[in-house]
Amino acid sequence: MRIAFFVYEFEPLLVGGLGVYAIEITKKFVELGNEVYVFTMNDGTLKEEDEINKVKVFRPKTFSCEAIFPWIVNEDLTRWGTHLKFFADIFAYNFLAAKKFWNIVEKEKFDVIAFHDWLSAFSGVIIESNLKEKIATVFHIHSTEQQRSLGGGSETIKHIEKKALEGADGAITVSYAMKEHLKELGYPVEKVEVVYNGVDAEKYCVKNIDWNLVDELKKRYEIKDEKVIFFIGRLTWVKGVYNLIHALPLVLKDFPNVKLIILGKGEQYKDLLYHVKIHNLQQKVVIRSEWVNEKERIAHYALADLCVFPSLSEPFGIVCLEAMAMEKPVVVGAAGVSGLREQVIPSGEKRTGVHVNGNDPNDIAWGIKVVLENLEEAKKWGKNGRKRVLENFTWDIAAKKTLEVYEKILNK
Question: Fewer beta carbons within 10 angstroms: which end of the chain, N or C?
Fold first, then answer.
């Protein structure tokens, strides 16, 4: 198939899990014999045309249309204040990406147009409404505004997401928890298929650990003989990291010889530093707010004794797969919308970790202590986790299942 792939973030401009997904899945599409054209955002510093992993990448340079948006947008968007620029930039990216695609489609025949979240929804709708010959359109729903904001958020974004799904020929979401969530929101779920995300288990493997780098990290974080609790992810409320910090004093009462390492960027960074200070945890918590390369990510997992992802709401959670592939026991938020609940087995012979309520610091502390009390047993949970990843959650599996959905939609 020849696939047009519209996604807001792509190498090297990465923000979170969506960018990791886009890089890995398109690479696998090509390896499986498909041709992929990615249309993505340009911050003004990147090449407009590129090729990465044999994927053709187009990054039309956007222009600012922020000045005119207050004239035409609704009251909901005007409340965005300075963040209106982000919406305007997204709109400009979509419009220009659609135009770039239009120039290409006059010469090349495409089979599928895949667009991801509301951030690329305009492109799909603009293209579909102008096509002379039908091309299958697939809307990938990695999250919703309601899920990201725990029920609040922008009414405009909610409307865009629902209209994008209604107009697409088919849709893919990342967990059964997300599909149930969409059903509760009144989305037409009869056209929604579930395909789990994946991980590169060859990269995220104990054989790839750079132990010199691990030693450097131990020195940097002043780790001596402490047990290491590790969190990696966006520093935002929905990821539960605020509650994780508040859970730590409860852990320290029973296990004083632990250290929490937090790696990520986000709007809560300064607030988290403040709460570390008021709880007098400066010697027990390290917050490193930066994006690190993959080799260093792997070294951080190697450093950890357990990994904790106490999300209040999580459509899927690729970092959990990375930790499991690295044979680490995991403590995950399993309340509400939780794809983590579908990854992690919390009991029995195939156990891989612990389910907790990410809204409750007491429950997070309990989950961490379950692992610390059973560290030898938890090593078995880590090995079970890697086995589960290899059987269910690799990018090869994700790509093949996604292509099967595309074929199904094409053949309707």
Answer: C
